[in-house]
């Protein structure tokens, strides 16, 4: 019976993996086709649906060396903003989560409840107030408008608090008796014990900022400062949509995420498993 169950389990996993990989494979295949060939075989299920008849790298060249839309500049902009936001989120949210988990202060339960209630507010509801706030600060068309509003993650505080709460108080008391200050205890004992959830939160934050489209579109007008998802959408206009270039740009933008995930997937899976979060 266990063999049958294992066979069924692995069969389902293989099917799900194939279903997940097919769109990615088709994206790469479409990026390697001339535009005239892109939809030629879409109505029939044969090998040419996934394998180009006349493979070419011209789409990638047109995207990378496009003077009107310098794609490498957009990748650099997005990498800079996503990295800064991720670092700030890990630092600020880790300190906040540690305070909610281990420190005692008046009104802690009420403040934490208010933080958690913010999770039910859709991001679209806060777009106009945030835009007006950025306008009043004079931060429109600058990276401050992308970085500062994204520094705090309510979900990140909740995630890290669950791990910090599991650290025995005796360890913190022993560090205090040995003369370690609270910041030193936090840096030397607490953070090293919570590497998997930190990497999990870091990957989620980085991916969220890498894929961000609506907020950069609203607050950034200078093309030289624009983010990668807005740049990909720029290949679609009133004159038409160049799907070959969109697929090539999407393929290029996927590479950094895949590289990061391949190196950190062990910690990411461990953090998700330990937290009990299903995604």
TrEMBL record:
InterPro entries: MetI-like, MetI-like_sf. Keywords: Cell membrane, Membrane, Sugar transport, Transmembrane, Transmembrane helix, Transport. It comes from the Bacteria. Gene3D superfamilies: MetI-like. Coiled coil: none annotated. The keyword Cell membrane applies. SUPFAM superfamilies: MetI-like. CDD domains: TM_PBP2 (cd06261). Residues 75-264 form the ABC transmembrane type-1 domain. The chain crosses the membrane at residues 7-28, 79-100, 112-133, 145-164, 185-207, 246-264. It is a multi-pass membrane protein. It is found in: Cell membrane. Belongs to the binding-protein-dependent transport system permease family. This is Multiple sugar transport system permease protein. It comes from Paenibacillus forsythiae.
